[in-house]
């Protein structure tokens, strides 16, 4: 049976309770909270709860509190004193107490509404008579104002009505019957297995007590599906129930609740609820069994896993032919089991079946099979008897299954190498020794284990011989013999064959020759080689198959060495450097013979790395041509020759340079002439102060050149140096000077900033010479006016715009050019303004401020003065205020106005002298509006209607403040047509003034 745990002492806003069944209801003052229910406050809500021990619990907005069983037990006895609390329990549990009762005066289907659910009055108001009648909806509650009902106050020691108070005459029976209900264990153990759920229904039983009686309604709730029945007599003074419930519904849920509803003769309803959890287990336990696939253990260990509880018995049945062995073993912690077959099995296959039953009676099964094998596998191993392969291939055969691992152990001295390899299809295996063996003998052991664990072994031996025979080969380094003799030595046995391979380009010649006594060999190349390098490879193989090799190279040379000589075509060096190239060997001697007229000079120089040579003529030559002869001899005695010629030139080229005397071009063009050859480069150096610029120009046909200065020069003088070098290295020079003048004449222009003169006078100054022409361009929109005026003595000028301008802004551009062509410019702007400024004025239409604030706007410039004239009867007040940023102004009337209308005039003058005006009117009203308020003197409406009248304008807001004790409620409502207003108190008031 559910018990209440607390009573709502007071609340503000909305407060809700969620029952243990998940039903949500709104609660009010005096409502009770039952054990297990959760109370929550909404936004702006709060609640104070009073517990059985007199303590209070207060919750603020957006808070929650869970009613516990301990608190419920403390107030359980008091709870049984109030029938209305049991009814509230029934309503919270979803009971409709009007189900089988005849309709009330409120009409069919009326369930009492919020009055019954909230612990307040249960009355039906008939609109036809407005008469209050007693409720006939099947229950009664004692609300505030009912005889015998006491409000719970903070200073009262008990939560509920004192049963010792004198009874009120003719008081109705509001006490609900107290009942209890208890569900028996489902299927006797609260555990449903697959067999029990295989039936269509399961009978759920239980007992009831208290004031329950035969025929009371029982409702079972299984996962939201309801099953109903009635209380029956179970004998021996015990009442209870027995209700078939769908097995499918029970299987889909994990708890069942039972509700008893008992109605006494006065129509009071008593309810109680019990809930019983249970377990559904229809799943057979999972079990696995693991038998060794093959084993040489005749009593193999059988293992497995299961989710059956620890201690459950697993029964194993081992079958081999006609032999059947049964053994049991317990489930261990972790859900595993393990057991040895209790008697020896024969060699061959066998099967194992495993079975386990869980506490619910569900049985799980699993099977596996294995085999006993106690015969070792056969194996052979074969290592090469002798090999020069240091990682020889080991092969063999075995009857172990394909995929079995053969372990080979190769032993050589202290070296032991182990390698694994799988058995291949056909029962063979092959593997290379994984690391190089040393030269010498070794042994191999092979081992294989079959799946049952039986091991077979075999051994073999071999030897490694990896020493190649030594050999040398000797070809002449260079020779003019086209069939040179090749010789060499070797430690291969006498009579072994040496194979020589002579390679020259695409030509490959092979010749064999025997090893002679003493380990030598010799042979001539059997066909003539061409001129050039060649290589020789020698190879000999010993009886073990090891091959020794050697190489050498030589060259055939029958050609004289190539040589070139290079004398400078023209040079101003009288001992010029002679260079050249040759393919004669480095260090060969080149002999040079220089001839100029009757002068003959001889000099020698060595060939350098890279085949070059270089030497200076050892004595000075005269200006003019000369010849050079070069000769070199290679080591074979072949001689190569070459000749060249050159000239000595000691005369510098002539050159001129021309810079503009004066220019406003900051990168002036420099020109000049020279007798240096066409294509020669002229280097120009332009110097201005610390600035030095360098540029080049090319001599063109006719002996001229031209180049622009590559960077802008500053204003002032500069110099130019020109230099050209001829082919012989002789240099000619020339210089010139010029000046840069880039300063434009200074000029100013002044147009009136604003003027109502449509042909304003434009003036200005300039440092251009007197008589220079100033050109003025006046632009206004699409209108462009041009006028010229001379510079006057003193550097001034003045001119009127020759045609009328329109109202609005305009610009003026002034330009003057000095004799050097430099142009000075200046601009200014002005405006024609013939329109007075716009202005508005705003006085409050009505105001109780006797010095009201006057505001307005204007397009007059910020800082302009607005003059305000306030007139009320014979009173005239003048005040000035500046125009603010944004074109606004504001000022308070400087002295108090009387109640009544007044006018305001505003005036502002712009900088051009144009004046704008505006007027407005307002009124001073200092009399408060009349208002009345009418609240019902007494009313049973907890949200009474408040009305009243006022002479305030329609739409004015009336603010009502309703105060009851510590409760203060504020509500607003508009004034209606006719000067009335009406509004309901927005939240329920308590009983009292």
UniProtKB/TrEMBL annotation:
Residues 109-121 have a biased composition (Gly residues). Residues 294-367, 386-459, 478-558, 570-643, 661-742, 754-834, 846-926 form the Bacterial Ig-like domain. It holds the Pfam family Big_13. Residues 97-122, 828-855 are annotated as: Disordered. InterPro entries: Big_13, Ig-like_fold, Ig-like_ice, LapA-like_RM. It comes from the Bacteria. This is Ig-like domain (Group 3). It comes from Phytopseudomonas seleniipraecipitans. The lineage of its organism: Bacteria, Pseudomonadati, Pseudomonadota, Gammaproteobacteria, Pseudomonadales.
